[in-house]
Amino acid sequence: MKCNLLSIGQLVQKGYNVFFVDDVCTIMDKTPNKQCIAEVKMTRNRMFPLRMKVDLKNGEEIVVETQEAFQSEPKNENLLWHLRFGYLNFGGLNLLNRKGIVRGLPLIEKPDSLYEGCISGKQHRKSFPSRKSIKAKAPLEIVHSDFCGPMQILSLASNHYILTFIDDFTRKTWVYFLKNKSEVFERFCNFKELVENQSGLHIKVLRTDRGGEYISKEFPCFRRENGIHKQFTTRYAPQQNEVVERKIG
User: Fold this and answer.
1) Which CATH architecture fits 142-248?
2) What's the whole-model pTM score?
3) Degrees (nearest 5) of the Cα angle 218, 219, 225?
4) Alpha helices, H only, the chain
5) What is the pLDDT of residues 162-215, one digit of tens each?
6) Nearest-CA neighbor of 109 among 134, 82, 84?
7) Which of 53, 102, 153, 176 could form a disulfide with 163 if both were Cys (CB 3.0 to 4.6 A apart)?
8) How confident is the model at residue 65 (pLDDT cuts 50, 70, 90)?
9) Phi, psi (5° rounding) for residue 60?
10) What does the domain layout of the chain look like in residue ranges?
């Protein structure tokens, strides 16, 4: 399972049978097997937590992390060789076979379906411009910000996250260490008050990615009240926020 929340609707659409009798939920396998996959008893908070159990020899039961499937589909042998050689094209695999370069490599047949990973990896993407179209002409006109964490190794003060602000004009950098993501808005307010009082200028543009810490309820209201324009980078395009990305990297 790829997620910890099991959808009853998706189970039904895929052919499984789900029964709710009294306070027990029963999940049955697809036809023609119709074996019982699990029986889940409702808890006090009206939830049905699914835990797979295994009987030991002494009769005790334990919860295990790994689960066995009732049915499994064997992997395509041609696709398996394709994966072993780092997604080498099927023509190249047959060339290895004909020349006897790889021992035990059979003659590969090109499958009818395409592998999603190969399609995504071979798609063309235009390069990002080397220079930004808009560049600050004075301090605090554009401030870059990024939030990083949680880190595997904590700081000396047991902080998990790093919050960075970079002025586009001077490239001066401010770094804050945080224990929780909820502190981002408070630290931005402190940063804004500090730099504006010291410089006598005002932050005009805040450029960040679309992280949840920058789109919370407090941020939009605060930006409107203080006249700060927000610039979001395109999703999955950290190159657009390269100033702060390179600093953290």
Assistant:
1) 2-Layer Sandwich (3.30)
2) 0.54
3) 95
4) 8-13, 77-84, 90-98, 116-122, 184-199, 218-226, 242-248
5) 999 999 999 999 999 999 988 999 999 999 999 999 999 999 999 998 888 888
6) 82
7) 176
8) very low
9) -80, 160
10) 8-63, 77-118, 142-248
Average pLDDT of the segment spanning 115-120: 74
The pair of structure tokens assigned to 239 is 């190159």
Q: How far is CA 108 from the centre of its chain?
A: 34
Strand stretches in the chain, DSSP E: 17-21, 24-28, 36-41, 53-55, 61-63, 142-148, 161-167, 173-178, 205-208, 229-232
Side chain identity at residue 96, one-letter code: L
Span 4-30, average pLDDT: 85
- The pair of structure tokens assigned to 12 is 């039904």
The two tokens of residue 56 are 């030991």
